[in-house]
Amino acid sequence: MRMILFSSRQYDSDTFSEANASHCYELHFQESHLDSETAVLAQGYEVVCPFVNDSVDAAVLERLHAGGTRMIALRSAGFNHVDLGAAERLDITVARVPAYSPHAVAEHAVGLILALNRRLPRAAARTREGDFSLHGLLGFDLHGKTVGVIGTGMIGRVFGRIMAGFGMQVLAHDPGTPADDLLALGARYVPLDTLLAESDVVSLHCPLVAGTYHLIDAAALAKMKRGAMLINTGRGGLVESNALIGALKDGQLGHLGLDVYEEEGGLFFEDHSNLPLQDDVLARLLMFPNVIVTAHQAFFTREAMSEIAQTTLANVAAWQAGTPRNVVRAAV
Fold this sequence. Notes:
By secondary structure, the protein is an alpha/beta fold. The chain has 12 helices and 12 strands. It has helices at 10-19, 58-66, 84-89, 102-117, 120-128, 154-165, 180-184, 192-198, 218-223, 241-249, 280-285, 302-320, and strands at residues 2-5, 26-29, 47-49, 71-73, 93-95, 146-150, 169-173, 188-189, 201-204, 228-232, 253-258, 291-293. A 7-stranded parallel sheet has the order 8-7-6-9-10-11-12, sandwiched between helices. α1 crosses α12 and α4 (102-117) crosses α6.
């Protein structure tokens, strides 16, 4: 079985090669992003493994199918970058990694909260320059405050449990069945507007689907408690980026932590340090002292990378055996 991994880096090669010891597939690691032009590189590969910012639209799928591809093995939980309808029409199986390490993403969200609240980047930069003053570094106790968790799947639940451990009141919003473990900790499931109005910290852990696109827009930001903190480690498209600028400028939004950005494709996972930043919205966001942006690294732990590789290859093995698992299909 031949498999090509697009947008791969050395850490992908290391983890997938280790996990492949029990499968012995022929793996090819391709640094290029997958798009309509690079799809030709997958000629002759039955399995294509894209990453989150690769393009797997109908045109790409047509080219892959013509080249012999019969499976898209996502090495991510999200699948919003795949045209599932086109995949089904072409009889291409799409499988994902539904869970790797929910702790990795949840803990990164907590790290953003602590860094923003206690102004850790600013404080560290000061002491390196010999400035040991405390002016402008005042934070607040998380204990006794309210955190809103939007999306209580595996990651949202882990995040909620951590924040409950800080002594925070947990408000949750999810269209599915309330999580028993959060309810046992005193969490309350409330409508979205209630969560936004009452939370000191709002953290996004829901998937990006049609109903959640720009879930946090100008209207939603206006409903939030003035000076509240917003954290997004889910998907960039959950937040309307342009709306963030005005909310930060007038103080409606007090702190912003982003690990994802809706226009991150072609930007994140690459070194652009020698080039001027072309994204004007992101450039403005990075100028605010109460904003921290990390480059989609929340998933990036040893444990998560190992689990991603193992699950991806196990998905391929199951498909090859005629018992596909973790398959995603177009909504009916």
